[in-house]
Amino acid sequence: MTAASLATVLALGGWLLYARLDANLATTDVDATLGSDRPTRGPDGSLNILLLGSDSRAGQNAEYGADAGGARSDTAMLVHLAKGRREATVVSIPRDTMVARPACPLPNGHTSQASAAAMYNSAYAVGGSACAVKTVEQLGKVRIDHVLDVDFTGFKKLVDAVGGVTVTTDQAIHDRDSHLDLEAGRHRLDGEQALGLVRTRHSIGDGSDLGRIKLQQTFMAALAQQLSGSGLLTDPVRLYQVADAATSALTTDKALGSAQALLGLARGLADLQPSRIAFRTLPVGPYPKDPNRVAVKRPEADALFTAVRDDTALPPVSTKEK
Q: Whole-angstrom Cα distance, residue 81 to residue 48?
């Protein structure tokens, strides 16, 4: 076989692999859905990604219980990648946060009704990831550049594809709802156990979503630590396995709707050290009308959103947030 023939075969093989990965992906055209009436994009080089965890019980997710009226985004993280990709901020938005939910375009061509006070995670149920994006953009005046949406089954596949994730818990967790049983200490979690961890709420803290957010942030920090320096991006076999799982698990915006775009995003994070990832929770306080809900705290939330929007230093963490 000549060098030219070998190059052609290799190129064709690479194209076929990319084509398979692309075929795995589901996409939603958020930009077309929301139009141009949105916050301006952040400083050149910075990027804001909304990471959503859906509680859908459709398909293989049915094993986690009956559908309670449509999928909601029980996990929502605003991921800010700073210019240069050497720093990042992850802002968790509690699902129970009462917000002004805007009117959102619907797939059937209609528009949902706006609500002056609704739980944040209801936006996803009303209008999918596009409405979740629009609600965050209205809440923080921050432009969302990309959205990544993963359900229970997809999350498990991703964790198993990277070989599990090692986390350390400072207390025993025995949660009947998430089906997780862990003693305090260091554990290597597979996909099923990791899903239980990030879903656990009732058996920790005060049983609210804020305790679950702490576990989710612990998991994300552990995942970042594990992937850092793992050589994943230089190991073609492992990289393909993870890419196959990721593209099967995720629904992305159209701009990220290809394996090449997702791998480009991943490679851009190669120099991001886990110690340079700041985890924050949207500042919230009691919601006067319902003790089971929380309200956005101003001006603390505004200061956090401003730092994300302008790609500037984060405000100090208040004593209550530590």
A: 6
